[in-house]
Amino acid sequence: MSARLIVFAAFFFLLPSLVGQNAKPESQSSSSSPSQVKNLPVISKSPDLTGEAVVIDKEEAVVRFTKDGSSVRTLFVAERILSDAGVRNAGIVSFPFAALTETVSFDSVRVRKPSGEVIETPPADAQEVPMPVTQAAPMYSDLRTKQLPVKSLSVGDTLEYRLTVKNTNAA
Questions:
Q1: Mean pLDDT over residues 97-101, rounded?
Q2: Rounded to an integer, what is the distance from CA 134 to the centroid of its chain?
Q3: In the chain, which ranges are E strands?
Q4: d(CA 171, CA 166)
Q5: Prediction pTM value
Q6: What is the DSSP letter of 124?
Q7: Does 106 score more than 90 pLDDT?
Q8: Which of 60-64, 68-72, 122-126, 140-144 shows the lowest mean pLDDT across its residues?
Q9: What percent of the chain has pLDDT over 70?
Q10: Residue 148 near residue 108, CB atoms below 8 Å
Q11: What angle do CA 110, 113, 145 make, to 5 degrees?
């Protein structure tokens, strides 16, 4: 999950600079009005997703900080499952965290079937397990993963989940 968040943040912050590199300076532009934009590429067809296992349709992150240094992150993800590999990959929603300073709770996990049926997975079924690195390096013993097996996930479904990470900043 954190890798997805890093990619999303990098895309969000780098996109304006990439778009700005292709823009002409105003002195070189034609005599058109300044409010008119020209030479933007038009995408007329959807991308070919045949080789993809999972496609992220929506990803949102809201972070709230308090004066004492603690924070609350709320993450929402909607993924379309396109293959059996996607079912295996997304069948268990897991989120890594540092147990010493953070707590993770799943607010909702649901599967939307193509027929419109919605199947909820109870957040109470989530388990907290140690990260595999803690077996090899005990100094990382506070690293944990919150895992929740998703009910009734199959190819063609949309998986939606929302989770909250509370950082106590107990330093």
A1: 91
A2: 25
A3: 54-65, 71-81, 92-98, 102-112, 118-121, 127-130, 143-149, 158-167
A4: 14
A5: 0.69
A6: G
A7: yes
A8: 140-144
A9: 74
A10: no
A11: 30
Q: Are strands 158-167 and 102-112 parallel, antiparallel or unpaired?
A: antiparallel
What gap in Å lies between CA 5 and CA 73, rounded to an integer?
12
pLDDT beyond 70 at 74: yes
Pick from 141, 111, 144, 105: nearest CA to 126: 105
Q: What tokens were used for 4?
A: 């997805």
Residue with tokens 């993800």: 77
Q: Where are the beta strands (DSSP E) in 15-138?
A: 54-65, 71-81, 92-98, 102-112, 118-121, 127-130
Interatomic CA distance for residues 130 and 98, integer angstroms: 10
- Please report the pLDDT score of residue 113 as a whole number: 97
3-state secondary structure (DSSP) of residue 7: helix
The bridge status of strand 92-98 relative to strand 143-149 is antiparallel
Which residues does 131 contact at the CB level (< 8 Å), separation at least 6?
96, 140, 143, 144, 145
**Dihedral angle, C-alpha 155, 104, 99, 138, nearest 10 °:** 0
Backbone angle region of 146, left / alpha / beta, with phi > 0 → left and psi within -120 to 50 → alpha: beta
